[in-house]
Amino acid sequence: MTTFRRRARLALLVPAAVCVLASCGIPTTGVVQAGGPAVGVVATARLYFVRDGALIAVRRPTDAPGDVESAVRDLLQGPADVELSKGVTTRLPLPTGLPTAVPAVPAYGGATVVPAAPSGADLVKVTASDHRISVRLSAAAGEPGDPGLAAAQIACTADAAQRVADPGAEPEPVTVTLPDGRSFEGAATRCPGI
Known about the structure:
The chain is of the alpha+beta class and 194 residues long. 29% of the residues lie in helices and 21% in strands.
């Protein structure tokens, strides 16, 4: 009978202890308005520029993480003002060398025809197949100042974007073909931050 009484007391004490612990004196409140809504993680692309003659990785916000062609097009836009102020440069031709305001050409009959300025699609073509990335710059992109370092900027940027799409992958070989037809090939194993 003694064991039965102990169990009965324990059965009564457990719910009472739970009630005491549950009401620890903290009053309930409604919704507290404080600050704006929570913000998620901003997607970034890793672009490779040059500082003091060496490659460096720069993170930029992007709408297309993992898209190699978008990353290379962003790279071709050159360093942002804040990056320039930190000594970041590029060996790639900058968009300022491209015609931004194309002069109107009078056409037959007095009408004016405005030739199209090169778009991002006209500057670069990216192909990814058979575990290999090929990047071809068109003549509209212009000639880079230091072809080897410019090709390394493109190769590292392309591989970094590909790694966003496939995080566990090994560096893929990247072939960069410049407007004059010269090709540079390499893997991103020599890229900083890889």
